[in-house]
């Protein structure tokens, strides 16, 4: 009953606000939405405390497993934890938007609640086709939220690119689900998995061509969501134009849910039948390309968006290491990523609110009156670098340990490079905006004691928000701080339960027993241990590199880009080429998607 | 049953994606997306088809009559159509907004969002 309520409460609240919202005062709408989301968070927390001991499964409409056609909702500890993270991020985003928007219709709250409901249902569902439906609901709401300020030209353009690419991916996912049904006659993750083990294997216990094709097609849609290279193009376009509170949800949880979809589908249904090396390759490519693109940006929201591409690429690599150890690390990493990225986007929103721009150059030195926002950027950069005991630190250390056991020597350098580049870029923003001196304006005007309103200047960007709030209200400051604190402490979550949850997640028979028999499996598990010497050393190396990158970038800008060595020219040419690649042209994006499917299929096929 | 329906489904998907790749008009691109989706309808219906079977309408079906095709895939196709209608409506609305704000719906003339 709890699981149905977790999905039903936000949908009912959304329906209520959609019908009555236009006559209700703004305060009532805000309070109703916040209360509904808080209820979801409480229900998810309750599920999380019960999931390790009591089976949290409900079969909708009373069609139990014996009928053969029932549709289950099932929450193992990981699913419940993700639902909790989703609800908390939504809560933070709604609190922030309370004062962030000058005027906002109740339709915004309706969309946010539907978004939450779709994400939670997608996490809980134990059925392939339901996963597709909730995936599409989540996507459609996301398109609408991206294009919320439809009077902006770039907003609708970004939303349209997002919509078309994401929809192609989702339809390919549906085709893959249809193939699974064709082979097994089942749509449940657990039942289809049992059938595939029986029938879907060719020689040597591996999946045959149809199983491989089904897995590749299903993964395509999820990889588009998870923004693996070369499916990632929509992400920065959408993040740059979406309202800031929405970006928190996009970056923090919607994109990682693509990774969750792949992990869940693999372990519940395809485990052992197909190799995951394709996921590792595309994830590693995303980690590198995202990090490089991140450094090349000066639009802060785009910069943060590319750092999400990079970090979610690392999550994909962690899942592809297909073991409970790597998955436990990935879970830590996801929790840390969600909190840090949420806090950074909210801080960017505060800058946008105060200065009407998120361009790093225009903002130079103008953040001096905003100590809390500045501290958020600094701590966020340290968090991205893996400051102990943050979730990202624990994630690095645990995943690294598991990758070493697999013989993946390249994981540690990859993780350090990706983290150092993204952390360096954010650190550079902090140095420039909060520590630099304004380029042309009178510094006295920026005196924090007076809190003077800086002139909006010519490069203003969004009517997203009221002209200027003199002091940031607590509803805009505290959500970011709480998210940041949670992320920086997430590494302290005890390793025992996380390891047990990962072992449960990666046990196909255990999942089937949970869903079909209502039995909580207790597979043998190893507690995750983040506190390794190499983990701390990795953080120090990352931090050093990040500081070097940031200082170098600031120095180079100060010396006004002089210096024309061969290296500098080559770097400039590469950067121009990379910018040109992300053309904003929907046809290019679709062509890249097709190429990505081909690569995915080639790497997944066993010759 | 022959393989023709499966080949047709794959062909429709590929034609739709080709249309999006080469599109010079956003309305055209959105319609091509619907074409891509039609491929999944054909695939689903082909999977549920049985030779000599009739439609899965049980109200007026005599007991021990002809076998029926698989109703599950038909339900999935209907859901898929609903999803497709939502997506198409939303994307067309966005295309209209692009035309209003930018004065063009040629994706080649839209400025890159990369700064």
TrEMBL record, chain B:
UniProt key word Transmembrane helix? yes
Membrane-spanning segments: 6-22, 29-49, 72-96
Q: Where in the cell is it found?
A: Cell membrane
Membrane topology field: Multi-pass membrane protein
Per the record, its GO cellular-component terms are: plasma membrane
Which coarse location class describes where this protein primarily resides? Answer: membrane
Q: Which domain of life is it from?
A: Bacteria
Which keywords describe this protein according to UniProt? Cell membrane, Membrane, Transmembrane, Transmembrane helix
Transmembrane: is it a keyword of this entry?
Answer: yes
Family, per the entry?
Answer: Belongs to the CPA3 antiporters (TC 2.A.63) subunit C family.
Any idea what this protein is called?
Cation:proton antiporter subunit C
Phylogenetic lineage:
Bacteria, Bacillati, Actinomycetota, Actinomycetes, Streptosporangiales
């Amino acid at each position: 009953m709890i699981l149905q309520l977790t999905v039903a409460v936000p949908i009912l609240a959304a329906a209520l606000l959609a019908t009555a919202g236009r006559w209700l005062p703004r305060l009532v709408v805000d309070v109703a939405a916040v209360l509904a989301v808080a209820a979801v968070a409480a229900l998810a927390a309750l599920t999380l405390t019960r999931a390790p001991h009591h089976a949290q499964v409900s079969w909708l409409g009373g069609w139990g497993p014996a009928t053969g056609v029932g549709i289950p909702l099932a929450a193992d500890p990981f699913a419940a934890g993700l639902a909790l993270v989703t609800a908390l991020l939504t809560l933070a985003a709604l609190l922030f938007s309370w004062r962030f928007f000058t005027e906002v219709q109740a339709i915004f709250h309706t969309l946010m609640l539907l978004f939450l409901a779709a994400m939670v249902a997608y996490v809980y569902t134990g059925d392939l086709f339901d996963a597709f439906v909730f995936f599409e609901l989540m996507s459609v709401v996301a398109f609408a939220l991206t294009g919320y300020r439809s009077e902006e030209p770039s907003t609708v353009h970004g939303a349209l690119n997002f919509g078309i690419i994401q929809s192609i991916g989702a339809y390919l996912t549906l085709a893959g689900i249809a193939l699974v049904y064709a082979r097994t006659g089942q749509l449940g993750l657990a039942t289809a998995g049992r059938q595939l083990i029986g029938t879907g294997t060719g020689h040597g216990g591996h999946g045959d061509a149809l199983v491989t094709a089904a897995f590749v097609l299903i993964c395509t849609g999820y990889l588009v969501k998870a923004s693996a290279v070369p499916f990632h193009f929509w992400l920065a376009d959408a993040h740059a134009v979406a309202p800031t509170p929405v970006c928190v949800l996009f970056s923090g949880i919607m994109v990682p849910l693509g990774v969750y979809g792949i992990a869940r589908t693999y372990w519940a249904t395809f485990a052992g039948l197909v190799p995951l090396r394709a996921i590792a390759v595309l994830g590693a490519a995303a980690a590198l390309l995202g990090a490089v693109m991140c450094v090349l940006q000066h639009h802060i929201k785009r910069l943060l968006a590319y750092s999400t591409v990079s970090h979610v690429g690392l999550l994909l690599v962690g899942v592809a290491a297909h073991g409970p150890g790597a998955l436990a690390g990935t879970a830590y990493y996801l929790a840390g990523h969600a909190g840090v990225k949420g806090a950074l986007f909210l801080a960017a929103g505060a800058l946008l609110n105060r200065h009407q721009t998120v361009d790093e150059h225009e903002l130079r030195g103008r953040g001096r009156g905003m100590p809390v926002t500045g501290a958020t950027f600094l701590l966020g950069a340290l968090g991205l670098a893996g400051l102990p005991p943050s979730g990202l630190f624990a994630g690095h250390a645990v995943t690294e340990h598991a990758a070493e056991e697999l013989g993946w020597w390249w994981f540690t350098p990859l993780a350090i490079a990706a983290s150092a580049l993204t952390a360096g870029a954010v650190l550079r923003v902090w140095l420039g905006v909060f520590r630099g001196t304004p380029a042309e304006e009178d510094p006295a005007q920026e005196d924090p004691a007076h809190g003077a309103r800086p002139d909006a200047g010519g490069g203003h960007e969004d009517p997203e928000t009221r002209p200027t709030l003199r002091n940031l209200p607590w509803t805009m400051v505290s959500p970011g701080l709480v998210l940041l604190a949670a992320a920086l402490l997430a590494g302290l979550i005890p390793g025992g339960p996380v390891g047990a949850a990962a072992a449960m997640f990666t046990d196909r028979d255990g999942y089937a027993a949970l869903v079909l028999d209502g039995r909580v499996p207790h597979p043998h598990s190893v507690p995750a241990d983040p506190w390794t010497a190499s983990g701390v050393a990795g953080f120090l190396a990352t931090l050093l590199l990040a500081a070097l990158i940031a200082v170098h970038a600031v120095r180079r800008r100060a010396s006004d880009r002089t210096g024309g060595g061969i290296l500098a020219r080559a770097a400039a040419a590469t950067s121009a080429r990379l910018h040109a690649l992300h053309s904003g042209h929907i046809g290019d994006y679709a062509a890249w998607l097709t190429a990505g499917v081909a690569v995915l299929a080639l790497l997944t096929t066993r010759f | 049953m022959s393989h023709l329906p499966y080949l047709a489904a794959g062909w429709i998907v590929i034609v739709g994606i080709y249309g999006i790749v080469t599109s010079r008009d956003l309305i055209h691109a959105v319609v091509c997306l619907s074409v891509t989706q039609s491929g999944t309808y054909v695939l689903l219906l082909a999977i549920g088809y049985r030779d000599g079977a009739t439609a899965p309408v049980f109200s007026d079906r005599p007991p021990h009559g002809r076998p029926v095709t698989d109703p599950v895939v038909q339900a999935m196709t209907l859901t898929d159509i609903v999803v497709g209608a939502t997506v198409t409506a939303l994307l067309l609305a966005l295309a209209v907004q692009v035309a209003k704000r930018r004065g063009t719906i040629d994706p080649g003339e839209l400025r890159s969002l990369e700064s």
